Amino acid sequence: MGQSERREGELPPGQRLQRGWPVLHYGPVPRFKPERWEFRVFGATADGEKHCWNHEEFSALPHATVIGDFHCVTKFSMLGVEWGGVATSTVLKLAPPAPEVTHVMVWAEYGFSSNLRLDDFADDKSIFATHRGGELLTAEHGFPVRLIVPHLYAWKGPKWVRGVEYMVADRRGFWEERGYHNIGDPWREQRYSYQEEPGDGPEL
Predict the structure, then answer these.
(1) How many C-beta atoms surround the C-beta of residue 57 within 10 A?
(2) Chain segment 21-69, per-residue pLDDT in tens
(3) Stretch (H or E) spanning 87
(4) Are 170 and 202 in contact (CB under 8 A)?
C-alpha cells in the first residue's frame, strides 16, 4: 500500500480506538541526565562525519508540529494526535545521508533499536517528538525524545531516542529480530515476521 492510500483518521484492520495512552515498553524507564545526553547521527553520512547535539542544542532546533495517528501493535489506536518536536526532515537536512543510504537504524537507551526504510523515516509526518498535545512527554512515554512515524506501527518509533545510524543495507532492529514484522504497516496488518513476503526484510 503506497503512502497515497493511507486513511488517516481511520482505524486500520484489527485495531480498536483508545481514549487514553497506555504505557507499554520493554525494560525500565531510564533516568534523564541532561549533562550527559547526546543525540548522534552517524554511519553513512554524506560527509563521512558523525553529527552530535547536546540536549540544549537539540532543543533549540526548529520546532515542528504534526497531527498523526498512533497505532500500537497490541491493537489500540489513537487518532488525530498532535505531536511537537524536531521533524526527521530537519535532521536529514542538517546531517544528510550519503546517496547510497536506503535504511536507518534508530537507536535508543539501553541499546534498543528499530530499523526503518529511509522513505518511511523521511516522511513528512515523521517527527522526533518532545511534546504531545502541547505538553512535554512524560518519562514513561519517552521523554526527552521519542520517534513518531504515524503510518507505521508504534514500535517502529522508539522511546528515549539517542541517535540515528544511516545504513546502505537493511538490518533488523530489536523487535524485528524477535519476531515482529520488518516493515510494520498497520493497514496491511504487518505484525509478525512470519507474515513477511520476499523483499520485506533480511533473513532471520
Answers:
(1) 11
(2) 766 666 788 899 999 999 999 999 999 999 999 999 999 999 999 999 9
(3) strand 76-87
(4) yes
